[in-house]
C-alpha cells in the first residue's frame, strides 16, 4: 500500500500522458512497511527516482483515497510488492486493478515483486491469497444491502482477474536472494525500463506547492501555443527552490523542442569569472545552433547572433539566476522568438523582466510570472529527515529537535538541506547546541545565498531601510513604518517596493511587514559584522540581552541609531545586580532615532535624553505623568502602552505668557519642547488613564490609538483641532462619556468596538454629520432599553471604515439614520443582538463590506445595499436561525460568507427571481392549483436532521420557486398517487394525451436513493418537447441540503405557457445527478409524471407567480444557449466547502457565456 509523501526526486519524461512520479509503490503495510519496502523506497530516493509512498494504513473495505488514484495515474511505473497478506487488503487490490488499467491504457510499466510468495499461488489464488479471497467472499455474503452485495461481487471478480494478470507478468522474485543485492537489482531494472541513466543528477523536490508548480509549468509548456513565444518568470528568495523546479521541468520537456538549453547559475558565473557573460552567450548559442564563434569576443555582437538563432528555431531555454538587465538583454536580445518557443527565467528580482528591452517591441512575447514561497511544516520535516536520517521521519528521540529546526528554517529548502546534512549522525545534544547557536549567528553558507539579493540593492536608501526593518519593524504595520522611517531620511515607500521585488520582504494580509526568518537573520548579521565583538560600536542593537548590557555598562556610543530593549524578553535569573538603568546611559547616543525601552525601570533625569528621537516606545512606563525634561521636539511616534500614566494633556496651564513652543504635558508644569512633529500616539492598555486633552498642541497627529483604556472617561474636544487625523481606535474604552470628532474631515477609520458597560454613556454631537441614537451598550449605546436615555451621536462624514462590534446593539437602539456617511465602505456589526438588518444600513450608498458575524439573534436579512460585495454572517452553530433572506434584483455580485446553516434558510427571496418558503406557509389554494394533493403530513415534516447545527429546531419542508417551477423534497420512498406515468430509472418519455381541458402544467417526481444523514444534491432536470423542438434545463438555485433518510422524494411542478405543451406532444424528462462531495452514492430509483389541467376555478391562485418576468412562457431570451436550449440557472448564492463555507451570489442570471461555462462544469 502507499501514501503521498510529496517527495519528488525528479527524473521523468512527460509525453502525451502527463506524469509527476517515476514510480508508485504498492505494498501491504503490515507485511513490509518497516522492512523491505522502507529499504527499497530509500534506495529509490537515493538513486533520484521520483517515488510515491504512502505509509498510512487504512481499514479494510474503505474506498481508495483520491490522492492514491491520482498518484497511480501520474506515475510512469508501478512496483507491486506481492507479500503474504497483500490480498487481504481491499485497498491494495483496488490499487492493483487501477495499476493494470493504466498499463493497458497508457502502457504504464508494471514490475511485480514476489516477496516470499510463489507466483503460482498468486495466479491461482492459493495459500494466503486463497484465504484472503475466501474472507472477501464471506463479507460479501454477510452484506444485507443488495446493492452493496452486488458491488462486492463485481470487485472480487476484478481482483481475481488482476491477480492472474500480474502473476503472468515478468517480475522479480526475492526468494533466496540477499535483500541488499536484490534491491540494487530492482533499482537498476527501474532505471533501464524508464530509460534514465544512473549517473544523472536530478533535483530533489518535496512539497505540494512544488508539485503544483511542476504541473502548472508542464501544462504551460505543452499548451501547443505555436503562434507566439512564451516567457515564464519564476521568482523567489535565494535557496527557495527556483533552480530545482526549473531543472526538473527542463529534464521533463527539453526533448520536445528542436533545441534546448539550460544555463545555470548565471549571476555567479558572471561575477566570478572574467568574461563570464560572454562565455554564457557562447554556451547558449552553442546549445541552440551547435555553433560557437571563437573569434567573436564582444557581448553585443554575440547577442545579435543569439537573436538570429532564436528567430529560426523553436527552442526551450532556461536562464537560471538572472540578476540584472544587462544579463537578460545579452542572453535574449530584443527581437522576436520563433513561434512556439518557451523561455523560463529564474530570478530574485520580481521587476526584472518587465524592465527588459525584450518587451519593448510592439509584438511582445506572452509573459507570466509565478513565485515560490517555501514548504509547510510537515513538508519541511520530511525534507530535513531525508537529509539528516535518510528517512521521511525523525529517528527516535529526535522529534522535538527536528521540529525546532524546522521552525527556525521556516520552510526554506536550502537551509533544511544544509542543516540536515550537517547534523547527520550527530546526537541530540549537538542538535540542541546547533539550534541555540543559529539564533545568535546564522550559518555563512546559507547567508551567502540570501545575501545576493541584498548586494543587488543599488541604493544606500534601500540597504539602510532593509536593516531598519530586519532589526526593528518585522510584524509592524506598513503605514506606521513608513510614517516613522520617512522622518529618518529614508525614502520608505519606494524602498519597500524594491525590497518586495527582491524577495527580501513581503506584506501580510493585515498590511504587516513580513520577512522570512532567515532573511531577517541575514539582515541582522550584516549589522553584527559592523563590530562582531563590540555591540556598542554597531549602528543598531536589537538583541535585548546585548542592549541591556550596553546600557548597564554605560558603553553606548554615538554610532547607535536604533536600540530595542524589552525587559520581559530577558531571563532575569541570569542578570546580576539591580535591574534599574540610568537615564545617563543614553546621553552619548546623539544620533539615536529609534528607541524601545519596554518595561524598563529608568532612574535619573531625562534632561540628557537623546533629542533627535523619531520613534519612542515606552511600554510599561512606571510614572503617572511624562517627565517635563523629556525631549519630544522631533518625535514622530510615541507608544506608551501598558503604562501607569493617569492623564495625557498637551495644554497650557500657566496664566503667564509662554515662550514660543512652550507647552505642558500631562499634569506637569511648563515644557520648553514641541510636540508639533507627533503623528502617532498609542496609549493602549493604560488602565489608569482617565483623560486625554490639549490636542491643539499636536496639529500633525494622524493616528490616535487608545484601545482598552478601561478608565478613560473623556477625550477633550480639542481633538477636533487635529485636522490630519485619519485613524482613531477607542476599542473597549467602556467608560467613555464624550467624543467630539464630527468636524474632522480626514478620519477614514474609526474603531469603537466593545465600548459598552452598564454605566457608560457615549455622546458624539455636532455639525451636519450622521446623528445616531444609541444606548450605553456600546461606545454609542445604552445598557438596557428600559434604563437608558438616547444620545445624539455625530460621526465624521469622511469615514470609510467603522466598527460598532461587540456592543449589545439591538435593532431598536441602532442608529436610524446613517445617510450622511456617504463615503463609508466597510461596516462591522459583529456580536450584537441584532434581529434583522437595520434600515439605516440599507441606505449607505457606497457600502461594500458588511460583517454581522456572531449576531446570534439574527433571523432575517432583507434588502442589503445593492453596492455590497462582501457580506459575512458566520455564526455560532448553536444559535443562529436565519429564517428569511431577501435580496433586491439589482444586487451586484456578492461574496456571501456563512455557515452550513445558511444553506437551509427557512425563507429566502430575491424579488422576481427566487423564492423559498416553508411549505406550511403556502396557501392551500396554491397547492391545489399545482395539483399537489394530500401533502398535509409532509408540510410539518422537518426538512432534515440538522444534527450538525446544535439547534433544537430544524426547518420544515420548503417550497422553492423560480423560472415558473415549484419544487419540494421530503423523506419518502413512494411517489404521490396522482403521479400517472411511472418508470424505473432517471428518465421518462411519454405522449401528452388528448383532453378537453386546457393543460397548464406537469408534476415531475423522482425518488432518490440517498445515504442516511448526508448531503442531498438536488439533481439537474431536463424537460424536452421533441415535437416542438424545445428544451429546458433546470439547475436549482440552492443545490444541496442536509437531509436524513434513505429515500428522498423530489417533486417539482412546471408551469407552462399556452404554447409550450399541447396534446400529442412527445415529452422526455431526464435527470442529471450532481456528484456528491461527501459520498457519491446518490442515484435515482424511479420517476414519474402527472399532468395538471385547469380546474374551472375563476380565481387564478398562481397569478403572483405568473407575473414574474423570467419564467417558462415569459422572457427567457437571456437564458438561451447556442443549441437553442434554455439553461434555467440563476447561479448558487452559496458554494460551500468543508472548512470555510462561502459563495457568490449573482442577482441577475449569469451571462450567456457564463451559463455555458457553468453547464460544462456541471455536466
TrEMBL record:
Keywords associated with the record: Leucine-rich repeat, NAD, Plant defense, Repeat
GO MF entry, a single one: ADP binding
Sequence ranges assigned to domain TIR in this UniProt record: 19-194
Keyword Lipoprotein found: no
Stretch forming the signal peptide: none
GO biological process annotation, one example: signal transduction
PROSITE patterns: TIR (PS50104)
PANTHER family: LEUCINE-RICH REPEAT-CONTAINING PROTEIN (PTHR11017), TIR DOMAIN, P-LOOP CONTAINING NUCLEOSIDE TRIPHOSPHATE HYDROLASE (PTHR11017:SF313)
Protein name as it appears in the record: TIR domain-containing protein
Amino acid at each position: 500500500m502507499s501514501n503521498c509523501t510529496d517527495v519528488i526526486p525528479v527524473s521523468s519524461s512527460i509525453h502525451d500522458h502527463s506524469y509527476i512520479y517515476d514510480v508508485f509503490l504498492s505494498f501491504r503495510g503490515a507485511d513490509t512497511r518497516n522492512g523491505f519496502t522502507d529499504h527499497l523506497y530509500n534506495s529509490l530516493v537515493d538513486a533520484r527516482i521520483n517515488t510515491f509512498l504512502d505509509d498510512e494504513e487504512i481499514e479494510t473495505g474503505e474506498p481508495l483515497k483520491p490522492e492514491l488514484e491520482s498518484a497511480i495515474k501520474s506515475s510512469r511505473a508501478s512496483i507491486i510488492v506481492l507479500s503474504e497478506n497483500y490480498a487481504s487488503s481491499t485497498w491494495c487490490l483496488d490499487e492493483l486493478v487501477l495499476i493494470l488499467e493504466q498499463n493497458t491504457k497508457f502502457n504504464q510499466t508494471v514490475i511485480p515483486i514476489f516477496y516470499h510468495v510463489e507466483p503460482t499461488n498468486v495466479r491461482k489464488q492459493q495459500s494466503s491469497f486463497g484465504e484472503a479471497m475466501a474472507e472477501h467472499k464471506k463479507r460479501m455474503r454477510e452484506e444485507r444491502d443488495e446493492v452493496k452485495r452486488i458491488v462486492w461481487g463485481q470487485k472480487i471478480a476484478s481482483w481475481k482477474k488482476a491477480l492472474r494478470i500480474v502473476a503472468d507478468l515478468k517480475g522479480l522474485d526475492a526468494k533466496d536472494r540477499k535483500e541488499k543485492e536484490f534491491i540494487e537489482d530492482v533499482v537498476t531494472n527501474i532505471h533501464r525500463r524508464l530509460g534514465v541513466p544512473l549517473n544523472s543528477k536530478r533535483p530533489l523536490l518535496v512539497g505540494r506547492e512544488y508539485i503544483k508548480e511542476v504541473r502548472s509549468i508542464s501544462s504551460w509548456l505543452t499548451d501547443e501555443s505555436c503562434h507566439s513565444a512564451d516567457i515564464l518568470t519564476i521568482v523567489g528568495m535565494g535557496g527557495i527552490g527556483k533552480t530545482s523546479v526549473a531543472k526538473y521541468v527542463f529534464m521533463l520537456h527539453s526533448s520536445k523542442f528542436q533545441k534546448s538549453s539550460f544555463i545555470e547559475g548565471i549571476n555567479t558565473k558572471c561575477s566570478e569569472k572574467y568574461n563570464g557573460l560572454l562565455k554564457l552567450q557562447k554556451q547558449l548559442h552553442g546549445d541552440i545552433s551547435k555553433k560557437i564563434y571563437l573569434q567573436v569576443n564582444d557581448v553585443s555582437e554575440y547577442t545579435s547572433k543569439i537573436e538570429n538563432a532564436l528567430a529560426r528555431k523553436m527552442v526551450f531555454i532556461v536562464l537560471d539566476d538572472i540578476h540584472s538587465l544587462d544579463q537578460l538583454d545579452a542572453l535574449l536580445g530584443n527581437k522576436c522568438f520563433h513561434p512556439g518557443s518557451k523561455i523560463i527565467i529564474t530570478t530574485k528580482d520580481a521587476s526584472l523582466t518587465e524592465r527588459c528591452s525584450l518587451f519593448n517591441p510592439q509584438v511582445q512575447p506572452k509573459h507570466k510570472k509565478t513565485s515560490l514561497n517555501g514548504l509547510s511544516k510537515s513538508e519541511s520535516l520530511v525534507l530535513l529527515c531525508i537529509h539528516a536520517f535518510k528517512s521521511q521521519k525523525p529517528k527516535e528521540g529526535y522529534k522535538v529537535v527536528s521540529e525546532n529546526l524546522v521552525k527556525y528554517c521556516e520552510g526554506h529548502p536550502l537551509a533544511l538541506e544544509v542543516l540536515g546534512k550537517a547534523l547527520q549522525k550527530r546526537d541530540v545534544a549537538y542538535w540542541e547546541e546547533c539550534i541555540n547557536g543559529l539564533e545568535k549567528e546564522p550559518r555563512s553558507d546559507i547567508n551567502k545565498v540570501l545575501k545576493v539579493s541584498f548586494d543587488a540593492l543599488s541604493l544606500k536608501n534601500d540597504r539602510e531601510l532593509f536593516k531598519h526593518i530586519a532589526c526593528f519593524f518585522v510584524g509592524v504595520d506598513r503605514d506606521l513604518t513608513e510614517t516613522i522611517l520617512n522622518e529618518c531620511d529614508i525614502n520608505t515607500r519606494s524602498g519597500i517596493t524594491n525590497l518586495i521585488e527582491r524577495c527580501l520582504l513581503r506584506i501580510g494580509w493585515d498590511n504587516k511587514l513580513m520577512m522570512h526568518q532567515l532573511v531577517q537573520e541575514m539582515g541582522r548579521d550584516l549589522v553584527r559584522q559592523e563590530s562582531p565583538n563590540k555591540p556598542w560600536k554597531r549602528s543598531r542593537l536589537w538583541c535585548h540581552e546585548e542592549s541591556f548590557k550596553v546600557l548597564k555598562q554605560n558603553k553606548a556610543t554615538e554610532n547607535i541609531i536604533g536600540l530595542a530593549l524589552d525587559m520581559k524578553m530577558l531571563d532575569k535569573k541570569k542578570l546580576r545586580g539591580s535591574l534599574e538603568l540610568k537615564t545617563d546611559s543614553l546621553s552619548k547616543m546623539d544620533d539615536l532615532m529609534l528607541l524601545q525601552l519596554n518595561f524598563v525601570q529608568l532612574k535619573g533625569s531625562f534632561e540628557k535624553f537623546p533629542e533627535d528621537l523619531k520613534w519612542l516606545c515606552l511600554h510599561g512606563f512606571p510614572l503617572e505623568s511624562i517627565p517635563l525634561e523629556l525631549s519630544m521636539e522631533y518625535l514622530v511616534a510615541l507608544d506608551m502602552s501598558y503604562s501607569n500614566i493617569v492623564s495625557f494633556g498637551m495644554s497650557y496651564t500657566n496664566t503667564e505668557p509662554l515662550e514660543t513652543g512652550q507647552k505642558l504635558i500631562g499634569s506637569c508644569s511648563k515644557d520648553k519642547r514641541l510636540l508639533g512633529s507627533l503623528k502617532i500616539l498609542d496609549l493602549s492598555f493604560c488602565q489608569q488613564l482617565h483623560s486625554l486633552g490639549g490636542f491643539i498642541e499636536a496639529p500633525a497627529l494622524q493616528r490616535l490609538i487608545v484601545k482598552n483604556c478601561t478608565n478613560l472617561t473623556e477625550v477633550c474636544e480639542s481633538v477636533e483641532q487635529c485636522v490630519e487625523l485619519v485613524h482613531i481606535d477607542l476599542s473597549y474604552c467602556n467608560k467613555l462619556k464624550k467624543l467630539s470628532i464630527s468636524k474632522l474631515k480626514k478620519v477614514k477609520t474609526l474603531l469603537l468596538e466593545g465600548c459598552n458597560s452598564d454605566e457608560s454613556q457615549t455622546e458624539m454631537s455636532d455639525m451636519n454629520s450622521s446623528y445616531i441614537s444609541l444606548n450605553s451598550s456600546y461606545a454609542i449605546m445604552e445598557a438596557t432599553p428600559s434604563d437608558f436615555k438616547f444620545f445624539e451621536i455625530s460621526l465624521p462624514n469622511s469615514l470609510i471604515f467603522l466598527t460598532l462590534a461587540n456592543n449589545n446593539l439591538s435593532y431598536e437602539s441602532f442608529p436610524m439614520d446613517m445617510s450622511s456617511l456617504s463615503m463609508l465602505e466597510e461596516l462591522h456589526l459583529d456580536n450584537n443582538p441584532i434581529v434583522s438588518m437595520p434600515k439605516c444600513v440599507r441606505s449607505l450608498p457606497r457600502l461594500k463590506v458588511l460583517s454581522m458575524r456572531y449576531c446570534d439573534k439574527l433571523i432575517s436579512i432583507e434588502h442589503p445595499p445593492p453596492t455590497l460585495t462582501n457580506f459575512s454572517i458566520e455564526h455560532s452553530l448553536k444559535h443562529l436561525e436565519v429564517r428569511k433572506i431577501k435580496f433586491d434584483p439589482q444586487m451586484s455580485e456578492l461574496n456571501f460568507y456563512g455557515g452550513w446553516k445558511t444553506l437551509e434558510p427557512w425563507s429566502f427571496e430575491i424579488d422576481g427571481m427566487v423564492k423559498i418558503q416553508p411549505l406550511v406557509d403556502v396557501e392551500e389554494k396554491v397547492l391545489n392549483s399545482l395539483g399537489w394533493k394530500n401533502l398535509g403530513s409532509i408540510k410539518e415534516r422537518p426538512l432534515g436532521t440538522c444534527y450538525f447545527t446544535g439547534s433544537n429546531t430544524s426547518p420544515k419542508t420548503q417550497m422553492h420557486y423560480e423560472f415558473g417551477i415549484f419544487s419540494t423534497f421530503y423523506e419518502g420512498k413512494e411517489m404521490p398517487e396522482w403521479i400517472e406515468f411511472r418508470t424505473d430509472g432517471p428518465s421518462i418519455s411519454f405522449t401528452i394525451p388528448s383532453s378537453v381541458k386546457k393543460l397548464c402544467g406537469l408534476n415531475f417526481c423522482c425518488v432518490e436513493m440517498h445515504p442516511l444523514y448526508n448531503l442531498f444534491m438536488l439533481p439537474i432536470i431536463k424537460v424536452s418537447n421533441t415535437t416542438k423542438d424545445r428544451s429546458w434545463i433546470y439547475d436549482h438555485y440552492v443545490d444541496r441540503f442536509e437531509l436524513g433518510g434513505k429515500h428522498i422524494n423530489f417533486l417539482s411542478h412546471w408551469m407552462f405557457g399556452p404554447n409550450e405543451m399541447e396534446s400529442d406532444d412527445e415529452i422526455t424528462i431526464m435527470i442529471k445527478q450532481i456528484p456528491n462531495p461527501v459520498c457519491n452514492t446518490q442515484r435515482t430509483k424511479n420517476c414519474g409524471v402527472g399532468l395538471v389541467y385547469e380546474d374551472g376555478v375563476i380565481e387564478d391562485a398562481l397569478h403572483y407567480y405568473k407575473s414574474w418576468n423570467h419564467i417558462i412562457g415569459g422572457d427567457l431570451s437571456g437564458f438561451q444557449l447556442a443549441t437553442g436550449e434554455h439553461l434555467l440557472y440563476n447561479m448558487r448564492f452559496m458554494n460551500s466547502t468543508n472548512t470555510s463555507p462561502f459563495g457568490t451570489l449573482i442577482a441577475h442570471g449569469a451571462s450567456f457565456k457564463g451559463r455555458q461555462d457553468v453547464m460544462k462544469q456541471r455536466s
